[in-house]
Design goal:
With 55 residues, this protein is α+β, with helices and mostly antiparallel strands. Helices cover 18% and strands 11% of the residues. The model has no long low-confidence stretch (mean pLDDT 77).
């Protein structure tokens, strides 16, 4: 088994990742409507949560 660092940059297809740690999107559970469709609040959540900048 090789030594793999979770905190080193990595390539995933066309994506250049800063590290190997990912988080699954929870957008459907945060939609807040019966149709489970994206709302302005959901879009704001996605923008804040998946920004590459620190808060």
């Amino acid at each position: 088994m090789s030594n793999i660092s979770l905190f080193e940059p990595s390539q995933l297809n066309d994506l250049e990742l800063e590290n190997k740690i990912v988080m699954a999107s929870m957008t459907r559970s945060r939609c807040g409507n019966a149709e489970h469709t994206i709302t302005e609040l959901t879009a704001e959540y996605i923008e804040k949560r998946f920004s590459t900048q620190s808060p």
